[in-house]
Amino acid sequence: MDFLTPTRPTPLQELRDEVVQEAGVRLYIKRDDLIHPAVSGNKWRKLKYNLIRAKELGHDSVLTFGGAYSNHLFAMAAAGKAADLNTIGVVRGDELTAYSSPTLQYCQKQGMQLHFISREAYRQKECSEQVKHLLKERGDIFIVPEGGSNELALPGVGEMVQEVEQQLTHLTDYFAVAAGTGGTAAGILSAPAPVLAFSALKRGEFLREEIRTLVGDTALVEHLQLFTDYHFGGYARYTSELLDFIRSFEQQHGIPLEQVYTGKMMFGLYDLMQKGYFTPGSTLVAVHTGGLQGRLASLDK
Ligand SMILES: *Cc1c(COP(=O)(O)O)cnc(C)c1O
Known about the structure:
alpha/beta; Rossmann fold; 6-stranded mixed β-sheet; 4-stranded parallel β-sheet; 12 helices; 10 strands; globular; binds pyridoxal-5'-phosphate
């Protein structure tokens, strides 16, 4: 049950370098990558109240969805084990096996039951014949959506914002975060706090609507600024420019990033600082959402 017990706040560190100084801002990084040894960052925050609810409702199994490299599946497998819940992962791609990726291998090792379905069936999620069959066979299973992004994810992310508010003596002007499904950005907006969201996917404009739906409050969504030009070719894609930026950031600050989410967010944030986007005197908090198990080994070269 260690997963469900409250943890200490994750560290908040100030980042000082030439770019920050030139921009005249104060930049902090919220180290949610350190929140749990296996369930990192925003996935821990988003799963917390989902798993508490599953337990309250008396479920012993949780089912969720993801791709072969999904940080969410990885987190769910670890969290389910820690919270003593059986986990079932529905994986996109019926050509895959548990050995198709390190993520899937890890999930299986944690005891997650993997089901591989076609991309077409995957699009229908719990309405697909295979998943319907699975649910009927296994009885009452608690379902967590892809990415863990539902209304139960919001209060968990909100706790991160409250931690920062207690750690900083002055107000935060912006929280910067990488976005995949937008659940984390929605949680920060609901806290409520202003958000700079950096899409990790191509054509990330759809995120605005996703976030609006999750937040359910149009006034709060006005505090969202969505950046869609820092995707570096699309989800899980990268360029040598991005990798070079990550290496130099890591060298300068001694904090690891990865190329799928946090590297893109930080690249975007530094680009905006260099372009004079922020009023001098602003306070920015970049959220390190974790995901380091997917960090490219070639970043060390
Ligand atoms: C999943 C993930 C995100 C995206 O979070 P959303 O709530 O889906 O927008 C960002 N960073 C990391 C490291 C992630 O694993």
